Amino acid sequence: MTETALLVMDVQRSMVSRFGSDPDYLPRLRQAIAHARATDVLVGHVAVGFRPGHPEVSPANATFGRMIGTDAFTPADPGAEIHPDIAPAPGDPVFTKKRVSAFAGTDLDLVLRSSGIRHLVLAGIATSGCVLSTVRQAFDLDYRLTVLSDGCLDADPEVHRVLTTAVFPGQADVVTIADWTS
């Protein structure tokens, strides 16, 4: 195993249906995942998930508080499932997070460090949400970072463009999936 991990974040059924206007998005992610596996790069999946009743969520949380009283992102929610087009393979670690960053409420950092991972390749939904928060936290944890620009989606194309061209390059290499896999 290399010192690199590909993290595929929040590519869950409901997120893909909300942000999935690009029909080539999931095929590109499958290409990145296949490349990672072929080059002995760990593939990890990160998903938002809560217990029934959302006891982990404060009503004051603007993003997650409105889910209280629903089945959103609980085991009863089919939309919480990692999208079947990029579903984890046997042995792929899956991390269930409780907030926006992939590190929030998970043992992600522990598993990565225990596996000798020092370089993270990030893809996911949304660029301005989980990708941004994970880049910031991973950078502060001293990981080397690569962001797959076309492996990320956002509701606002301009926000995506600014993050991938002006913000992320200060902390990460930003490349396309085609460039990363070549």
TrEMBL record:
Gene3D superfamilies, per database record = Isochorismatase-like
For this UniProt record, give its keywords in alphabetical order, as a comma-separated list.
Hydrolase
For the Isochorismatase-like domain, which residue ranges apply? 4-179
A single MF term (Gene Ontology): hydrolase activity
InterPro entries documented for this protein: Isochorismatase-like_dom (IPR000868), Isochorismatase-like_hydrls (IPR050272), Isochorismatase-like_sf (IPR036380)
Quote the Pfam families the UniProt record gives. Answer: Isochorismatase
| Highest taxon listed in the record's lineage | Bacteria
Name of the protein this chain belongs to: Nicotinamidase-related amidase
Organism per entry: Kutzneria buriramensis
